[in-house]
Structure formats: C-alpha cells, structure tokens
Design a protein that fits this description.
Elements lengths: L1 H31 L7 E4 L5 E2 L5 E6 L5 H7 E4 L4 E6 L2 E6 L8 E6 L19 E7 L3 E6 L8 E5 L4 E4 L5 E8 L5 E8 L9 E6 L16 E5 L4 E8 L5 E8 L6 E7 L11 E2 L8 E3 L5 E6 L2 E6 L9 E3 L4 E5 L5 E7 L5 E7 L4 E7 L3 E6 L5 E11 L4 E10 L5 E6 L9 E3 L5 E9 L19 E10 L14 E12 L2
Parallel strand pairs: 2-8
Antiparallel strand pairs: 1-3, 3-6, 4-7, 5-6, 7-8, 9-10, 9-35, 10-11, 12-13, 13-14, 14-15, 16-17, 17-18, 18-19, 20-21, 21-22, 22-23, 24-25, 25-26, 26-27, 28-29, 29-30, 30-31, 32-33, 33-34, 34-35
C-alpha cells in the first residue's frame, strides 16, 4: 500500500495542479467576458471589376451585428445609391442603378457594433474594414472611316484614351455585335476587293480585354471565320444576350426564293466549327433575339411573331398582329418598344408589357430608326425622323427621351437634314449616348478608291462620332447638355458591355 501511495501521489499532484490551472483560466475568461472582435469575413466584390449586369455585393460578418449601426456606418466612395437586406450574418447591398463605368470604388465600415455588446453593457465595435472594386473602362467600337483604317473595326478606350485597330485591312466590316463579356466581337465583313454588299461572311475577333484583371485575356486581333458565304448570302445577324446563339438571315444564291432565318451556337469545340440550322417558319423581315436568349422576335406578315429558337418554329410562342416591328426589349424582358404602321403612312410607338398593357408613346410622320431602354431609369431613348417636305420626302432625324411613367417627351438634339444614316448606342451605365454623322460621297470616285458604304449602299466620304452625356429626365427637366465631338473618324458606333 505504501508503494502504491507513493507511486500515485505525483500523478494526483499533477492532475490537481492542471485542474486548478484550467479553473483559473476559465474563471479569468468568464471575468473578462467575450472579447472576440467582430470583423468582415468576406466581401464579394473585393478587387473585382464589375459591369452593368453586376447589381449587388455582400458582406459576411464573423459575428451577429447590430443592423442599424452597420447601415449607418457603411460608406461607399464615390457614393452608389442602393438598398440593404440581411440574411443572418450576411448583408446584401443592391444597387438602384448600374455603377458608372471607368471608376474606382472604396467600401468602408467602421464603428459598427456587435449585436450582443449593448445587453452586456460593453461597446465593442467592428474591426475597421476597407474594400476596393472597380467598374469596367468606358470602351467604344466603331468602323473606321479615315484613310489609315477604312472599314476596319476600331476599339477606343475612353477611360485610358487608347485606340486599337483589331481587324485586318483586307476585311471591310459591315456590322458587328459585342459578346456580353467584351472579350470578343461578332462581325460581318466582305473582302476589300469586293464591292458586293451581299458577300458578307461572319467572323469573330478578340478585343484583348479581360473582364477580371487576374484572368489573362487573349491577344487582340485574333480573327476566326464563323460562317462562310459559299451557298448562302448572309444578310443580317443578331447575337443572343447570353452570347451563346447567333441568328442569321440568309438567302440561297441558287434559289432567291429560299430565304429565311438560321440559328447556330456562337462557340464550339476547336475541333469542329458550329453548324447553322434552319428555323422552319414563315419568311420574315427584321428580327431581334429576346432577352432570355430562347426566342426571336420577327416581323412576319401583318404582325410581330415570337418564335422559339429551335428547328421547328412553325408555331409561334406569341403573335401580335397590330405591330409590325419590335424596336427594343428592356433588359429583363418585361417591356418592349413596338412600332405600329398606319394606313396614313404614319407610325406609332407603343410600350408593350408582359402583363398585356399596350401604352402609346408617340406618333411620327417620319421613321422610328432605333430605341433603347435606359438601364438606370424608366426612360426610353429613341432616334426618330420627322417629315419636313412631303413633295420630296425629306426627313430630319432627332433624338428624344421618353419618360415611360408619365409619357413625357424631352427632345435632346435635332440633327442635320442630310444625316439619313445616323446610328446611336446607349452606354451600359445609361450615362452616355453615342451617335455618328455620316457625310455621303457627293463627287464620283472609282469604286476601289472608297469601299465604305451605308446600309442603303450610299458611298461614305467621312464620318464623325459624338458623345452626349445624359441626365435622368426628372433630375434635369430644363437642363440640356450638348454633345461632344470625339477626335475619331468613323461610323456605326457601339459601346462595349
């Protein structure tokens, strides 16, 4: 027994000492209370480059937070209006309008309180947080019209003031559509030694731009043939909003009566080229892919048909007999701007919603050339013409902003009468409107000397590009900001998404 007692005693002493030490530590912690400092664990936009499609970010906290103190102390510089929602320890900030492009932002949170600090009589605040993100550069694309880059696709970075030609000299670009991530452009072009406007083939070209800074971009100017013109003429095309599908209006060279829409994937494995498929339906006119990228709106017969993007499109998803043309869709697809052609040769513009509402917006004796929904406010920007001479049918183009809630029209700019081929493009953040002013060739020149032509086949002498800053109608009812002439020579301007 004596031996056993002597053997056990050191272990007992060690165990008792350890228990006493742990008891002291536990007591010390209890007396100190909860001293873990709350902090931001995750910021979803940290060091990210965002675009108009990015509408919300979230902050995830390490502990439950006092909601009011977080909302009062959250700061974004420059300011971005938004609304806040919560799900446990996660706070979501949803922007009311797209963030302006070409801007660096800083998100700060200081002095926000822990939810359990006040009941305990303590004033614990969050570890100071600072995050950063940026929006994409303001970048435009246009077809060059000066001698150095006639007919070539030009990319101009307005933020950095950098110009880059991305298509070769032997291709005359006729039309183009940017992919949604801005990394590639889908374009139609004919060879520089071919004056036939119906000889276009479809290509893609890389822009050299990456959506995220950490992701390396392909070098700019890499051209790939997507669709040739061996058997069919490629007349018009559209790219789906998700960048996955191309719809092309084609005509059979051997049989002019064989005319219609085809669809094909925009991307494919490098081992095989994408193959176009016929959209089996009645022949149609102008067309536009719907915002969900699953259907196409086509001027068909005496109305506008919505056709599914599948081989058998003989049964339309919808048909609107009173409208002859879809001018534009809102980004979410809930609204469309549609044109009604009247028997007295006037045209009506309607706002049509997915709830069945048809609201008249305006009537014109001229043409409704283009309309685009503002992503930042309930406004529709339109390029219209008005008839100034019935005898010679002379039209004057002008730009107008329409408040979709009140129906109020605000004329923005009247353009010269001889500018029949004006094209416009609304910036992704809704803060700028691009348009061109094409000067037709009045003196006869050899065809080979000037390969540039408008959609009407008229030779182009030169063209200028203009940028008009925009303000919401409600914020500036009497303020008019004049357009700025850009130091660029070209036409057919478009914003990069």
């Amino acid at each position: 027994m004596t031996t056993s007692k002597a053997f056990i005693q050191p272990l007992d002493r060690a165990a008792i000492a350890l228990m006493l030490l742990l008891s002291l530590l536990i007591g010390f912690i209890v007396l100190q209370g909860d001293v873990v400092t709350s902090r931001v664990r995750d910021f979803t936009w940290q060091n990210q480059q965002i675009g108009a499609e990015d509408i919300s970010f979230s902050l995830t906290f390490s502990r439950p937070m006092d909601i009011k103190s977080v909302e009062e102390n959250l700061k974004i510089e420059p300011p971005l209006a938004g609304k806040i929602s919560w799900a446990g320890r996660r706070m979501v900030y949803t922007l009311l309008t797209p963030a302006p492009y070409g801007t660096n932002y800083e998100v700060q949170l200081q002095s926000a309180k822990d939810r359990f600090s006040q009941p305990d009589g303590k004033n614990r605040v969050i570890q100071p947080f600072k995050g950063n993100f940026q929006t994409r550069d303001r970048v435009i694309l246009y077809i060059g019209a000066d001698p150095d880059n006639q007919g070539q696709l030009v990319l101009y970075n307005l933020t950095e003031e950098q110009k880059q030609i991305i298509t070769p000299k032997d291709l005359i670009v006729m039309d183009f559509k940017p992919f949604p991530d801005g990394g590639k452009i889908l374009f139609s072009a004919r060879t520089s030694n071919n004056q036939d406007l119906l000889s276009a083939q479809l290509y893609t070209v890389t822009t050299g731009i990456s959506v995220q800074p950490e992701t390396p971009a392909e070098p700019a100017g890499k051209v790939d043939l997507i669709l040739d013109n061996k058997k069919y003429q490629n007349l018009k095309f559209d790219l789906s909003p998700d960048g996955e599908t191309i719809v092309v209006q084609r005509g059979n060279k051997a049989n002019p009566g064989d005319f219609g829409l085809w669809f094909m994937p925009a991307t494919s494995d490098r081992s095989e080229k994408p193959t176009p498929k016929r959209l089996q339906s009645q022949p149609g006119g102008d067309f536009m892919i719907t915002p969900d990228s699953k259907a196409v709106a086509v001027a068909q017969g005496q109305g506008a048909a919505i056709l599914p993007l599948q081989s058998d499109a003989s049964k339309p998803l919808d048909f609107l007999p009173q409208f002859g043309l879809v001018q534009a869709f809102s980004k979410d697809g809930s609204q469309a701007a549609m044109v009604k052609f009247n028997t007295d040769y006037t045209r009506d513009l309607f706002l049509v919603t997915n709830q069945g509402i048809q609201k008249p917006l305006l009537k014109t004796t001229g043409s409704i050339r283009n309309c685009q929904f503002d992503p930042a406010s309930p406004t529709l920007y339109c390029l219209l013409t008005q008839l100034v001479s019935n005898e010679e049918y002379i039209e004057q183009p002008y730009l107008v902003a329409i408040d979709l809630k009140t129906g109020e029209q605000k004329p923005l700019l009247a353009l010269p009468i001889d500018q029949r081929n004006v094209q416009m493009s609304l910036s992704p953040d809704g803060l700028g409107l691009l348009f061109d002013q094409v000067m037709p060739q009045t003196e006869p020149v050899p065809l080979s000397a000037n390969p540039l032509k408008t959609e009407d086949g008229e030779a182009i002498a030169t063209s200028s590009l203009w940028l008009m800053p925009l303000l919401p109608i409600a914020d500036a009812p009497t303020t008019t900001i004049g357009p700025e002439k850009l130091p660029l020579v070209g036409f057919h301007p478009r914003w990069l998404p």
